[in-house]
Amino acid sequence: xxxxxxxxxxxxxxxxxxxxxxxxxxxxxxxxxxxxxxxxxxxxxxxxxxxxxxxxxxxxxxxxxxxxxxxxxxxxxxxxxxxxxxxxxxxxxxxxxxxxxxxxxxxxxxxxxxxxxxxxxxxxxxxxxxxxxxxxxxxxxxxxxxxxxxxxxxxxxxxxxxxxxxxxxxxxxxxxxxxxxxxxxxxxxxxxxxxxxxxxxxxxxxxxxxxxxxxxxxxxxxxxxxxxxxxxxxxx
Length: 236
What we know:
It is built from 12 helices and 7 strands. It is α/β, with parallel strands linked by helices. It has a single domain (2-93, 108-145, 169-235), classed as SGNH hydrolase (Rossmann fold), CATH 3.40.50. It has a 5-stranded parallel sheet with strand order 4-1-5-6-7, sandwiched between helices. A hairpin with a 2-residue loop joins strand 2 (20-23) and strand 3. Helix 3 runs parallel beside helix 12 and helix 7 runs parallel beside helix 10. The longest helix has 20 residues, at 167-186.
């Protein structure tokens, strides 16, 4: 795709676009992850500034976007891909377990997340950077509860906070994905859907690691295939 080859693409993301997978009780980076597969398919360079545990709030606190804009060459076709939200929607489960009757908020509360995402998009657009957002791959509440939360907090107390319904984990994460879609519409920027293909797959859990959060190798292939198809439609 010649159009993409003339663009300077930078991704600001978390562990999923970084290619992190959870295997054999440890985290490691998948060599053939979705970003690598997309770059190879289009024969393009992608500057991947994704980090494990990254949130939109931390991105702003560290001034990452400001530092990026200081180096941007306006003569180039710059594209910034923002692929965040999963960690923003998560909770400090130890705090939750210590006081399950309190109304705890996620790492980045929803209203703050939406305002911050709007401001980040607009800051980039004002410097003539094209912005692309991605939504969030789904999460498996059961795996995440049993294999992540239960290892760091009293799961009985956490379940009390969740009102006995662990699917609240999925719904809260889905809410952030909906916010991302809304922000893309409001700010007239592209949205790459990396959630839909999983939801339509009746065996989508086979494409996720045991932690219920990180897509495995097959999952990254699905993400890459979906992104490639969407980009090919855009660039035609």
